[in-house]
Design a protein that fits this description.
By secondary structure, the chain is mostly helical. It contains four helices and no strands.
Amino acid sequence: MNDPDPTRTLGDRALSIAHAAQLLGGNDQASLELSSRRTGMSFQRTRMSADRTLMSIIRTALSLIGFGFTIYQFFGHMLQTVGGLRPHAPRNFGVALVALGLVLLTLGIVYHVRYMQGLRAERALMIREGLVHGESRYPISLTLITAGLLWLLGLLAIVSMTFNIAPFA
C-alpha cells in the first residue's frame, strides 16, 4: 500500500470529504463522513468473509487429509493381520485422498491471496481518492497462515505414507 500515512489529520480528511462532496454534488458533510466510514467498515466485513471462506476450505481439506491418513493407517494394519488386500492399495487410496485435500487447499490459498490483493488494491485506490478513511490496517490473515501450515502437514503426510518414513510412519 502506498498510502503515506494512514493516520491523517482531521483537516486533511475534511478536505477530501469536501472534495468528495464537490464531486458528488452534495453538501451534507456529516452524511458524507458517515458514508465514508461505512464503506471502510464494509471492506473489513468483506475481508472477514474471505477469511471465513478460506476456513471452510481448510475444514474440507483437513477432513480429506485426515480421512486419507486414517485409511492408510487402518487398512495398513488390516493387511498385517488379515491379508487379502493388495499390499499398496491402502497406501494408494490414502495418498490420493491426502493429495486431493492438498489440491483443494492450494486452490483455496491461491484464490484467497488473489482476492485479498484485489481488495487491498481497491481499498488503496479509494483511500487515495479520499472516499474511505484508512485508519485501520490490513494485517496478514491468521487463517492464511493456518492454511499454509496445514499444507505443509499434508505434504509431510504424503511423503511419510509414500516412503514409509517419519514423522507419520
